[in-house]
Amino acid sequence: MHMSWMVYGANGYTGRLVAELAVRRGERPLLAGRSAPKVAELAGRLGLEHRVFDLVDPAGVRAALDGVEVVTHCAGPFSVTSAPMVDACLATGTHYLDITGEVDVFERVFARHADAEQAGVVLLPGGGFDVVPTDCLAAMLAAALPGATELDLAFLAGGGMSPGTLRTAMEGSAAGGRVRVNGELRTVPIGHRDRVAEFPSGPRRVTSIPWGDLATAYRSTRIPTITTFTSVPGPAGVVGKVQSFAAPLLRSSAVQQIGKDLLGLVRGPAEERRAASRSEVWGEVRDGAGRTATAALTAPNAYDLTADAVLRAVGRLRSGSVRPGAHTPSTAFGADFVRELDGVQVRDPEVR
């Protein structure tokens, strides 16, 4: 059978963007998901083949990956869906790419590195806005200041969120904040730190939140202490106090269910809104001698960047140029991968 690549979760918000961009670029991915009517409708509209299968059936997943070279896994929440797809990819020799931003999902995928090497498979979680721009910027900073011991990464993402992103954010906020200190992941209150980030559009006060780079930037750079930030409304201290009050409530099954019911009413940002919004990333590293390096970038809307990054990553994986194992975007493709993406402008590292 002709080797192809697959978009799983093609009927979701980001999966659909990936499929539509693929067709515009002359690609013909195999579309897949567990909802037969939705996947079939999209495949029919785009003139593509499709398969329907559920990740709870391991034998069915392995059979569905027959003839598939790369899976682009877009069906969250990845805390539930990643492991069964990774298992099937390792069993069938299929390269795995996903768009997760969840720290624990990254850690679990990275734990399969030896399995992936043995299977001749590339495992690449975080192939979208989570975490291509932040990971590549972190790798550039680490190269500019070898021996850096601390990394701060901050991002702005305008234009609104999809249902899947909101669902992940809701689950994550119930778990609290995370940082990496001296190589170890630690739980802290959300908003335990704030600082000013010098984004290309100007300085902004940002607040610490858990973000995938606590796993990926550590793997890419081995910088032992990492904090990730974004801009949130209101003073940082208020965020932490609200989170400490709300976390037990958010963890309750009833509130989680109400939230998921409400997510059914949410649609991701429309094309016009995406086109009118931008994303930005800023990072700073420090070493023991007091030297610092900073860098930044501007990029399109996070969802448009994700679709573009995924398609370019699939091309690299299909070319066979990435060594087997579990990777971050920068260990797979190099720190300059982000420079290849449409509409990305990088402000190179400055060492002080």
TrEMBL record:
Residues 6-123 form the Saccharopine dehydrogenase NADP binding domain. It comes from the Bacteria. It holds the Pfam family Sacchrp_dh_NADP. This is Saccharopine dehydrogenase NADP binding domain-containing protein.
